Each structure stands twice: as C-alpha cells, then as structure tokens.
Amino acid sequence: MNSSVSTQRFLARTLAAPESPTSLTETLADGTRLTLLDAGVLRISPTQPGSHRALISCGVHGNETAPMEIVDQLVSDIFNGQLKVNNELMFVIGNPPAAIAEQRFVEENLNRLFSGKHRHSTAKEAARAARLEALTEAFFLDGDEPRLHYDLHTAIRGSYIEKFAVYPYLHSRTWSESQFGFLEQAGIEAVLLSNQPSGTYSYFSSHEFGADAFTIELGKVRKFGDNDMRRFAQMTESLRRVVDGTERFVARRQAIKIFAVVEEVIKRSENFKLHIPDEAKNFTEYDAGALLASDDDYEYRTQRDGERFVFPITNVPPGQRAMLVVAPVTDLTELTEA
Ligand SMILES: [Zn+2]
C-alpha cells in the first residue's frame, strides 16, 4: 500500500483496508494538512484558521453509496488542488465493512449506537461507534469555531419528498434559521424536527458539542456506480462552499417544509405489525384515525389529518424504532413552548 495519503482515492483506500487503523499525515503543496486517523476518517486542516469546523460523514449505513461517492469526490478535488480548504474539516466513511458487504450494517445498525449506546452492544459496530465518538470529540474540541455536522444518507424506500433532513432533538436549544436556509439552498425540501434523544451520529454531535448537525436523506439507495450524481449536484455544491469557506450561511428559509415528529413508534414485541403497504412511499399522507401500527396492547392511529409516516421498518429487534409519524408545522414559534 502506498504510504501517501493523497495518491489513492479516499473511498478506494478505505474499502481496501476497512479495519486496519492507519495514521498518516501529509501536507499538500499549498500547506493544507491531511491526517488519516483511522480507516475512513480523514482530518484536513487549512493553513489559516477558518470560520467553521465541519464534519461531513457518509456510509454510516454501508449500502448507501451515493453519499460515499459525494465525499470521495470532495476529498479527491482537495487532493488534486481543485478545491481549496479554508475550514477545519473531518470526513468520515462510517461503516466500511458494511460498505464492502453492500449491506446497511454487518451486525447492528451503527446509527443507533452513538451517545454511549454502544456500551450495551457487542456488535462489530459498537467498537466503531466508540472510536468515531472519540475522534469526533477530539475534532470538535480542538477549536472554538462554530461546529457543523452533515451526515449524508440515502433511504431504503421511495419518498414523496426525495430530499429531507432530520434535525436532532435540541433539548433547550432552538433551531438555527441560517441552517434551514443553508439546507434549502442545498436542495433539501423538508426538515423533520425530532422530539427526543436518539442514538444517531448527528444527535451525538448536536447534543455533546452543540454542533448544527443533521441526518440528511438524499434519495433512494442504489449500488456503487448506479448513482446519477447530477441528482446530488446542489448538495455537493453547497458542501464545496463549506469546504472552501465561501458559504456564509446567510440564505433565508423560504419554501422548505417543516415537520414535527408526533410519534416514535417502537416495536415492542414480535407481534408488532405495520398496517401500511410494503411499497408505500415515505411521507404518505393520512387522514385522522388511520391505523398505522399495532402490537400487544398498543396501536397507533393518526391523531389528525395530514400526518405522514417516515422510515417504516419491521425487521428490527423489539425495543427499537419501527417508524416515525410526522405532522406539518406551520408556525415554529408554536413549538418552542412545548
Ligand atoms: Zn442511512
């Protein structure tokens, strides 16, 4: 294996050696410093302090290839000098062994294991979650610039809203209007506001380090090579502006839709059932009273017109989330008192 960081593409290198920890440092011609901290974890420091400290992650689910190709292209353009770095950056390919296997995960969903939840698991992904937590902490605490984390995903099923972001639960903090504007400019059509803590990577960055952090869904899962990268051009362009420091976060929210999570449906037992068709798309809309899920001593019926489901999945262990139910928000100030 070549000892230089920049002579091999980031994604190819990561998939060629998915579990061997490596620590390699290299300086580009313009003084930008690259450090490969672990398989799929690359820190990049500009020569001058920037305005932000940005974590851009992908492949937390191994079969979600388009985000990995977006990140690979950004890193490649940094290596070859086409994209100048003016902010502190960390790029993460979350679950390389799962990416090689072309699976969502090898033993357990990595995006349920952050914020210490890995301590209750012996899955391969638990060790990776602990390692990513440590590297993420070191990155964010290394300076006091405003912190950003964009965790890029694609979804298993089709969706009435193709591109959307999940805003982690903020506890006493409030939503960032400038981030709504940024996401809209990046082609994101809707934002879901979470109503409780979770084990996601974005919640970890948000809660532990006060980062403006989002899980970003960019469309449907496809295999490597089958992605039409033009579909991701707006997001890619926006991330390039984060890298080169030209993004000022001054765009205003205009048409982006906002939804609040009204119910997190948990699978309680093996008798859990979803009452929606297999092929139904995310954001399918219902009138009040529709039965969406049932279990021993539990059922979820929509409480009011306009509720929609997102991320339905029955193939999870009892105790895990099987679906989110969301409802449109017309006035954010109505929520802030909640
Ligand atoms: Zn995902």
From TrEMBL:
GO terms for molecular function: hydrolase activity, acting on ester bonds; succinylglutamate desuccinylase activity; zinc ion binding. This is Succinylglutamate desuccinylase. It catalyses: N-succinyl-L-glutamate + H2O = L-glutamate + succinate. It comes from the Bacteria. Residues 53-241 form the Succinylglutamate desuccinylase/Aspartoacylase catalytic domain. Residues 255-328 form the AstE/AspA barrel-sandwich hybrid domain. Zn(2+) binds at residues 61, 64, 153. Its EC number is 3.5.1.96. Transforms N(2)-succinylglutamate into succinate and glutamate. Pathway: Amino-acid degradation; L-arginine degradation via AST pathway; L-glutamate and succinate from L-arginine: step 5/5. Keywords: Arginine metabolism, Hydrolase, Metal-binding, Zinc. HAMAP family: Arg_catab_AstE (MF_00767). It is an enzyme of class 3 (hydrolase).
